[in-house]
Amino acid sequence: MKNQIQTKSMKRIFLLIMVSLLAMAVSAQVGVGTTAPNSTLDVRGSVSTNYRAFTANTSAGSTDNVLVFTGSSAATLTLPTAVGCDGRSYVIKNASTTGPVPVLTIATTASQTIDGIASWVLDESYETVTLISNGVNWSISAQSLSAGSGTDWTQGGNSLASIRNLGTISNHALPFITNNTEKMRLTTSGNLGIGTSSFNGTNPEKLLVDAGTTTSVNAIVGKGSIDSYLQLNIQNNSAGANSSSDVVATANNGSETTNYVDMGINGGSNTSGVMGSANDAYLYNIGQNLLIGTGTAAKSLVFMTGGTTQSSNERMRVDGNGKVGIGTNAIPKGATGIAKFALEGTNASTSGPHQQFTTSTDNYPLLQNLNWSHDYVYNAYDAYFDGAWRSGTTAGGNFVLGKEAGKFLLQYGNTNTQGSAITWNNGIALNTSGNVGMGTATFNATNPEKLLVDAGTTSSVNAIVGKGSIDSYLQLNIQNNSSGTSASSDVVATANNGSETTNYIDMGINGGNYSGGVMGAANDGYIYNMGQNLLIGTGTANKSLVFMTGGTAQGSNERMRIDGTGKVGIGLTAPTSTLHVTGSTAYSTTAKTANYTATASDYSIICNNTSGAITISLPAASGCAGRTYVIKKISGASNNVVIDPNASENIDGASTRTLTAQYESVLIQSDGSNWFILAKL
Fold this sequence. Notes:
Layout: H1 2-27, E1 30-32, E2 41-43, E3 51-54, E4 58-59, E5 66-69, E6 75-78, E7 89-94, E8 104-107, E9 119-122, E10 127-133, E11 138-144, E12 174-178, E13 181-186, E14 192-194, E15 207-209, E16 244-250, E17 260-266, E18 281-286, E19 301-304, H2 310-313, E20 314-318, E21 324-326, E22 355-357, E23 367-373, E24 376-381, E25 383-385, E26 389-391, E27 398-404, E28 407-413, E29 425-431, E30 436-438, E31 451-453, E32 488-494, E33 504-510, E34 525-530, E35 545-548, H3 554-557, E36 558-562, E37 568-570, E38 579-581, E39 589-592, E40 596-597, E41 604-607, E42 614-617, E43 628-633, E44 641-644, E45 657-659, E46 665-670, E47 675-680
Parallel strand pairs: 1-2, 3-5, 4-6, 5-7, 6-8, 14-15, 30-31, 37-38, 39-41, 40-42, 41-43, 42-44
Antiparallel strand pairs: 7-10, 8-9, 10-11, 12-13, 13-14, 16-17, 17-18, 19-20, 20-21, 22-23, 23-24, 24-27, 25-26, 27-28, 28-29, 29-30, 32-33, 33-34, 35-36, 36-37, 43-46, 44-45, 46-47
């Protein structure tokens, strides 16, 4: 009887549980401590999760929730993989009381990240972080420091054990406000605006100060106290060909292209040709006049070169009365005359007067300006003309810059005996068509070169070299901007006996409208030669020649390679045979109904002998060693297919081979003397 009562009681409990489960399934809400849950899980009371303290390296498990480090030396807590545990969270705390606080490093598994970085560090006492899995990586949902740790961010200053970040971790700018108004903004690109949050759309400022409408004349002021120079400095660290560092003042109606004054210096690799060359400094304006002067009466404007010591490096001055002195600070020298500065010579004189500069140590000119005649004007350096060209130096050679017979010339000599005759050599020549010659002043009459470099007989293997330093491609580029139907851009190397039509190699690309039909179509690239053989290869042992199509990523776009041992691989990167193909192959097929002579273009020859016997004549085996043919008879007619080797050659020792049965076929190959049947197919 007692057992029956217990059985009935168990049935009632089971029934009650089932009803509860059905109710939960219907409402999809679970209540603990309440009969009316209002959420998926509604707990009316305290919640307990697993708590574990540790003192050394450990790993977080599926049964962990709160992990507290109490060790006395640095330790690492390794997270499980975030994959497969979406939504799992851990609360991790560094509760070590050891000073200084030992570092707790939170490491990930399988190269996963915590908010985008490989690991997270808790290095402050009672610092806490809450991590949650998103199914791929771990994210920080909360982070805090103990109020008693001394590392809260306070208004009176902060003492930190390591670097701390102040800012945003999302893609939002950081505004700074006073009196409830924004006064400064740091953008997500690192641009800082003071007095404004609007940056130039084309060239956004790294630091922008906008004083707005103000009564103060000072927008930016730098001050200090040092017994040396104190500077405001801007430095462009680029080594590019157009780089420079500039300080610019722009008028209210100015822009990047007009109404500004610019003081700057070209970068060390600047070759732009604008405002000098590499490391040249400059001062210029775009707009109206450029005024340079002294605002104090009777004070001079002084120009120095070669150093910063005025007594030894002053070269020219304009004094307070507007007089110009070169090489002297007394204008005029000896108080003789009232001239400001003037120099005039007799036209077309070849012997002078010239303007020349000497030193107090000898009588030979350092510099001479000569030949007062149009189309024959020269500046000679350590050289002079007195009816003949002569050297003015004992070391360093001679140079002359001049305009002669329609050319602008830079020539050089190597005469280092003062007073001795100079023979000029061609350096650089520029003609009125804009053609530049280096080492020559003579251009191709039919196709004059825009830039011609003639190294002459030389011991140097370098005629032209381009160098640079950039974390990207660095190129020597030629671009034909013509949109014509015959236009292309080409880089050509020509042999000593070559010309425009023979003995050259050409790498190029057709223009966008090219339709000439030679070397491809519009925008096709090509490499070819006119002359003898074209050799393409690798010069280093055991290196492969790789062919790619469809993209530049070798891993996905390599189509064929010839490895260092001569093996050819198609569709794979490690061929094991002379020809190794991964994928399908295709051979030519020729259908014949009458006699036919096999050629180098044939492979499979299909013979339909319905209308009569067919003879397939083979080429001379001696001229095609290794060549193979497949010959097949497809008709059921009694007409035979006869395979006839050339002249006295034979096939498997016989003068001919006859196919008599329908669909009979053979695979044959030449050994360079005769033909042999490799297979009857």
